[in-house]
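Bench notes, afternoon.
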Amino acid sequence: MLDALHHVALICTDYDRSRRFYVELLGLELIHEVYRAERQSWKADLRIGTAQLELFSFPAPAARPSYPEASGLRHLAFSVADLDPVVARLEAAGVAVEPIRIDPYTDQRFTFFSDPDGLPLELYETR
């Protein structure tokens, strides 16, 4: 059902410090970086092998990692060749899946759902 790990997203409390850590210290390749003025948020896409780490900043993120915009783990994403049958399978099993969205930077379709403990998970279509 799942093909591979597409990306892991982290929200940091100090963007410059975290960017230096992941790029300069750990050697992840900076693929793309954008400042999203409407959210006062930096976003960097970093390559690690065949997967990516998304690094986000937000003004004063909440301290608890259980919230989507909190520091720490944001979500785990899994790539799928075709989103629709995977969503249908999850919904048939009683899993709530958010409406499918389109990433404004890549034009790819994606959606979110949660594991039984509430960990946010993403399905990212890679047709």
